[in-house]
Amino acid sequence: MKNLSCFSLLVSVFVFIACQASVQNTSETKTLGDNPPALGFDVENSDAKAIAIADDVMKAMGGRTAYDSSRYIGWNFFNSRKLWWDKIAGDVRIESLRDDFKVKMNIHSMEGEVWKDSTLLTQPDSLNKYLQQGKNIWINDSYWLVMPFKLKDSGVTLSYVGEEKSDSLDADILELRFKNVGKTPDNKYQVYVDRETNLISQWAFFTKASDDTARFVTPWKNYQQHGDILLSGDRGKYQLTEIQTGLEVKNKLNEDLK
Questions:
Q1: 54: closest CA among 159, 201, 170?
Q2: What are phi and psi of 205, to 5 degrees?
Q3: Would you list the domain boundaries of the chain?
Q4: What is the pLDDT of residue 180?
Q5: How buried is 180 (Cβ within 10 angstroms: 0-12 exposed, 13-18 middle, 19+ buried)?
Q6: Which value, in Å, is the radius of gyration of the alpha carbons in the chain?
């Protein structure tokens, strides 16, 4: 688990944009509806069928309005750290469960405080280093939780690549490629959307967009209602637990780190 967690931190550092503006395009079928793409989503090179399925996923998860209004989310990432996140303000609190490391910061302004080995960091270079580490952790860990809401993010090109039919899967496969975002834009993901539920049932990660073989494949199972949205924490042998939404997350964000 440690290797997968650290590896995914490097490969999943995408720009995590909350912008809800619709992209202007001559193809009205690609932009209309209740789930407009984020500014910078690659509408021109994305498949209309893939976009329609992505919209079905958003609706099945609770809908764009419900996700946007779900301001506070907290979770335990693989029993290695806990995170609390204010989606609107951009405030994040991270507490490691494996060493003495705590971060409380704003991922937009990159301002905050860091405690390491029971010491408040004040030296600018060290502070900035660990604030950046905190943001990278949040990008990675939050993507493992809320990826289904982000299929039409900035920098994403979304394609329909086929279907999978087996004893365990009856799914449409969407492929996400990335352009001019994050530290590793050459990655790609394939997500499997269950045709009956319109929920993502598994994903596959490819280190390079040209790769034919996935680096890893994990399920997305056991969706649960959290406020107005559905969230899944079951990744097979990897688990996101203690998922919370609401005021308990806000209260934790307001607590002092020490």
A1: 159
A2: -110, 135
A3: 24-254
A4: 66
A5: exposed
A6: 18
Distances in whole angstroms, Cα of residue 85 to Cα of each of 7, 245, 251: 22, 9, 11
CA distance 7 to 147: 17
How far is 230 from 173, CA to CA, in rounded Å?
20
Identity at 198, one-letter amino acid code: N
Q: Which residue has the higher pLDDT, 12 or 229?
A: 229
Q: How far apart are CA 101 and CA 90, in angstroms?
A: 20
| The two three-digit tokens of residue 195, written as one number | 């045709």
Tell me the two tokens of residue 83: 């995170």
Beta-carbon neighbour count of residue 246 at 10 Å? 14
Among candidate residues 19, 50, 49, 53, the one with its CA nearest the CA of residue 37: 19
| pLDDT tens per residue, range 31-67 | 445 899 999 999 999 999 999 999 999 999 999 999 9
Two structure tokens written together for 158: 């979304």
Burial status of residue 56 (CB atoms within 10 A of its CB: 0-12, 13-18, 19 or more): middle
From CA 191, how far away is CA 206, in angstroms rounded? 11
